[in-house]
Amino acid sequence: MITPQDIEQKVFTSALKGYKREEVDKFLDEIMMGMESLLAENERLKKNVADLQAEIQEHKQNESSVMETIEQAKSLMSDISESAEKRAEVIIKNAHADASRIVQDARESVANLTSQSDTMKSHLNTFRSNYKKLLKQELNRIDGVQNDLFADLRSDFYPGTELEEEPAPAVENDMQDPAIAAGLFSETISDEPVAPVRTPMDDLFSEPVAVQADVADEEPTENMTDKTLTDLVLEQGETSPDFDENAKTIVMNGSEAFLHQNPDGR
After folding, report:
1. Where does this chain mainly localize (predicted)?
2. Nearest CA to 132 among 241, 232, 220, 225?
3. For 36-40, 61-65, 182-186, which range has the lowest pLDDT when averaged over its residues?
């Protein structure tokens, strides 16, 4: 390759009818300057090419890094997706297990409550039956004591009527008669017959007896106020769902009234 130095140092021989030396030298100078300019431009372009190649190489490296990052992101995304799926499966499995356990506990609780309810119903029915029997026995005993008391009073005031009436059924009672306890009457009654003596009080006593007989023949009505405590309790037990509370109230009120009227419990 010819360089500007070669052009500058080139020497031509002289010949007859040759070129003018000045023109040749001037042209060679122009060629040398043009050559130097082209060489400088060529160097500059080479440098630019080198820079561009370096930049391209850098971009290639960046591209490789970007592709590697993309691959890592894809791998990470796949791992996250797989982990999320596994976690979702675990959560769903645990949820099913918890739901099954809750349902099982609820069923066991319902079974226990049902069993307790049946047991309580059985105990309640037994209690109601025993309570009714106890009320009947107690109130029948009270009615028998009351009849015995009235019979004793009638025999004491009107001895003659005792022979005409049928003897009342015997009622076991260890409690002392309140009239005897108060000293109003004697506990022993003479076995000697006493002739009945008609007094004005006989007319007063016989009339209520007749009235009582008429009343006894009448059919009882729903609004009768002389119902026994047993009747009231049994009616409440058949019609009211709150038999226990109503029965307690009736028995307590009836017992308080009876004890208030009969302090000795008769």
Report:
1. cytoplasm
2. 232
3. 182-186
pLDDT the model gives residue 100: 94
End-to-end CA distance of the chain: 155
Q: How far is CA 125 from CA 23, 98, 121, 139, in A?
A: 147, 40, 6, 21
- Gap between the Cα atoms of 216 and 194, Å rounded: 30
> CA distances (Å), 8 to each of 19, 34, 37, 154, 216, in order?
17, 12, 15, 178, 169
Task: Report yes or no on 194 lying in a domain.
Answer: no
Does 101 fall in a domain? yes
- Which residues, in sequence order, are CB contacts of 38 under 8 Å at separation 6+? none
Instruction: Assess if residue 211 is contained within a domain.
Output: no
Domain tally, the chain: 1
- The answer to whether residue 214 sits within a structural domain is no
> pTM here?
0.31
Q: How many helices (H) and strands (E) does the chain have?
A: 7, 0
Q: What does each C-alpha distance from 225 to 197, 222, 229 come to in angstroms?
A: 36, 9, 11
Task: Give the residue, 238 or 62, on which the prediction is more confident.
Answer: 62
Spatial separation of the C-alpha atoms in residues 94 and 89, rounded to whole Å: 8
Range of the domain at 149: 4-9+19-157
Q: What is the CA radius of gyration of the chain?
A: 67
